[in-house]
Amino acid sequence: MPVAAKPALKKPADTMSSQGIASKKASKGAKGKTPRGKDMDDMSEMGEVGDEWMQQKTMVKPDDQLELTEQEMKEEFTRILTANNPHAPQNIVRFSFKEKVFKQVASVDQLAIHFSLDGNMLHKDSDEARRQMARGGLAEAPSEPAVAEGEEKAEAAGEGGEGEAKPEGEGGEAEKEEGATQTAPAAKGGDKKLTNQFNFSERASQTFNNPYRERGTQTEPPPRVNFSSTANQWEIYDAYVEDIQRQEKSKEKKGFRGQQESTNRKKISAIESQGDDITRIEKPAKILERMVNQNTYDDIAQDFKYWEDVSDEYREQEGTLLPLWKFSYEKSKRLAVTSICWDPKYRDLLAVGHGSYDFLKQTRGLICLYSLKNPSFPEFIYNTETGVMCLDIHPAYPHLVAVGFYDGSVGVFSLTEKIQEPMYKCTAKGGKHTDPVWEVKWQKDDLDNNMNFFSIGGDGRVVSWTLVKNELLCTDVILLKLDESPADGAEGTQLFTLGCGTAFDFHKQTDYLFLVGTEEGKIHKCSKAYSSQFLDTFDAHHMAVHSVRWNTFHPKIFLSCSADWTVKIWEHTSNMPLFTFDLGSSVGDVAWAPYSSTVFAAVTSDGKVHVFDLNVNKYEALCEQVVVTKKKTKLTHIEFNPNYPMIIVGDDRGYVTSLKLSPNLRKMPKEKKGVEAAKGPEVEIAKMDKLLSLVREPPAEKK
Amino acid sequence: MTEAAGEPKKEEAHDFRRLHSYPLIRHSDMNEEMRTEAMELCVTACEKFATNNETAARMVKESMDKKFGSSWHAVVGEGFGFEITHEVKNLLYMFFGGEKAIIVWKCS
């Protein structure tokens, strides 16, 4: 049996509440104290006049407190309080039925209850309470119901518990009355809370209450869809059969090329993702580049569009060239410009072929396509192993560029393909030229709608190339035989000596007619229909013909230039040149203007551009201007822009310069006529004819 | 003769019973996770209450309500036609065991 100290007190059953006692006692204590506190207040009143509003701290001292000296006060007594009940027995022994012996209990209950009071509460409105109150006659204390209730009894019980006997405890009715009258003031005094006397402060505050607001919203209801079907046995069966068939199929597929596909797919996805990374910024980067260039070359663009040389108004027969953009690419420096060509569709795009004219110093080749909108960097770049000697952009398919190389091969590049290699290229066995290809020219599609172009090479052949599927088929159009009688070869065969073609041009109106210039200085008028002989031969120059060009408007007139410093104008029906101009240096290229039948321009190896207008001056150039910055730079090629009054010239250092023609160089016929404002080819032809009539009368006389 | 002919037929029937025992999702617009869970639940319910479609449906419905919020509807049966309105991404129509169709959808 556990033995524990239990000094709990059993109270009488009618004890009301312990609270009642507590408050009563408190009030009593407070009441007892007040006189002392008052005294102290009085003594310290002088100092605390201003602090009346503060809570007063009062010392409560029991009467029997020991009076100690300072020293005694400072003395320390160490006393450890433990939760062990000193009265609890430590050697409780119980009989264990399991082991049939007495055993010591390990844990001893240390709980000691010193006081316990069971109470019960009554509602003051209940009958019992009323009765009690009536018995106690205390109905007059409504503010202190707990105190009022059966207070006498409670007090008696509580005090009885403390072991003190009080006469009131057994009190009769009269005494209860008295007690009640005493408690009323006591209750009033008990309002004051007994505070912690050592550390106490009280603050109160009220935080701001946030006002309430209402917010309402409504979300969209989740979307709903109707669904209907029928479930029955055959539907279910069919679905299963279908599913099984599909599974089998996919199994077969996997078996066949599961591995292959997966690897392929991985590769593709890797490439795609890489490509995506670059292509994503490609377009913005391009736009930005164009913007930067537009700002950088703003003044040139303004000149290109609006600048007109005002001094032209004061001189009749002179014109000037205004240099505009200069195109160059790092890798193209010191690679001579061997050909230039405007794109027929994109009017700002020009193709430039780079190679070398020096027989001893052959280099790699380069094709650059520049846009006027971005002079600083080519739009397209193609590197080739051998020098590019000529190129031509297809008039109908502007992404196709035919190229002739120094090693005699020809190729076709496609600008839309993102590859460096030509889309078509002739091979050694495919009938390529055995000498440099000097000029290529796209032709109209043939009867089978295959694209084709012509090329002329140093081996004396003019070859037609047809693009069939993915190969180039060649057909010899003409062999440039020399007039000499054929030499006898081995076994009775005859060896023809072939001339060396350097230039050709196709008649603008007559489809079959074309001219071929040779290194011997001859110009042959040929027809596509006759491969064995020439229609005519002109003894045009003393040295290699660099270029022949049909007039843009007049069907009979063509122009030739040569290394023998001369530019000659011919009528293809006559063996004698109509005009001969000596330019004092090897003439690299000539070009007719697209806007006038009488205007042409030539470039010479001393770095000059010569622009003629026969209508204005039949003897001298209107403009003779050095356009290169460095001495000894030779100009190699010239081309008129088909739309703008602009020419581009290429030099042997790899630069392409664009020049604007001043107003005098592009005079239109209306200015001369004054009244007539007619334009068009007829006018141009008439203009030329008129000029020719002047020249033709004395045919013997040159110039 | 008749017995001989009947045997392979029976076998075939048995075979397709066996072959068609797996759950086959006929139509569903649920997301992957939900679909798998719902499908497994349906399979469990149908296996547990193989003979009582009503309790199977109740189990499916109540579990779905608990897992994905109310209100779910479930139909389990061997032959029925239906026309329902469901919330998008909350429909599963599947076959199971070669003969049962189960449709579960949410519409609150």
Could you write a compact summary of the structure shown?
Chain B: Force generating protein of respiratory cilia. Produces force towards the minus ends of microtubules. Dynein has ATPase activity. The complex is a heterodimer of chains A (703) and B (108). Chain A contains 10 helices and 33 strands.
The total number of structural domains of chain B is 1
Distance between the termini of chain A: 153 Å
Helical fraction of chain A: 10-25%
Widest β-sheet, arrangement of strands of chain B:
1-4-5-2
Query: Architecture of the largest domain in chain A, according to CATH?
Result: 7 Propeller
Shape of chain B: globular
Could you tell me how far the N terminus lies from the C terminus of chain B, measured between alpha carbons in angstroms? 59 Å
Strand content of chain B: 25-35%
At the first level of CATH, what is the class of chain B?
Alpha Beta
CATH topology of chain B: Protein Inhibitor Of Neuronal Nitric Oxide Synthase
Main beta sheet of chain B, described?
4 strands, antiparallel
Ranges of chain B where pLDDT stays below 50 over 5 or more residues in a row are 1-7
Multimeric state of these chains? heterodimer
Domain module tally of chain A: 2
Outline of chain A, from the CA principal axes?
A: elongated
Total helical segments of chain B: 3
The CATH class of the largest domain in chain A turns out to be Mainly Beta
Question: Helical stretch count of chain A?
Answer: 10
**Residue-averaged pLDDT of chain A, rounded?**
76
